[in-house]
Known about the structure:
Elements: H1 21-40, H2 42-70, H3 77-96, H4 98-126, H5 131-150, H6 154-183
Amino acid sequence: MTDASQDPQMSIGTPRVGSGWGWILGYGILSAAIGVAAFVWPFSATLAATLVIGACFIAAGIVSIGAGIFGQGHEGRGYAIGFGLLSLFIGLIMAFEPATGALSLTLLVAVWLGLRGILEIVWGRRMRRGRGAMFALGALNIVLALVVLATLPWSALTLPGYILGLSFLFGGITAIVSALNHKKGADAFAL
């Protein structure tokens, strides 16, 4: 019989090496499957993402309005109510007109890509090393922004789904690799 006080792996409250790896693996497999599904059905994934984001805006709007109405004695009451009404309005549009919400999200991504590309080119001019790579990255992001804008409204119906798919797929792969390493004794989610 082993003395638990001498064996750190047997002491009470100390998890065994690799414990829980199956849960991490299960999460990774599910996440990767959702990512693949988002690529197979990008319109459905876009619709789901738009509805979830709309629900978040609605919830934030309701809470902010409540904070403004019931949070007496602070100077930001008007702001809280105004922000809440705006959030509620945008959330309702996204919930009841998801195509409009998806279009807004896609336009936001296109603007972000374009501005990021410009910033990368400007920053690249100041760099001593990696200037060519930064110029290439900036140019790529500007081209991607133009492609997104040129393919509207089709890109609005699929791009958020593809982005969601990429996120879930790579998150799942990362979790699977982490689970397999954790099974062998590495810390969970160790770098």
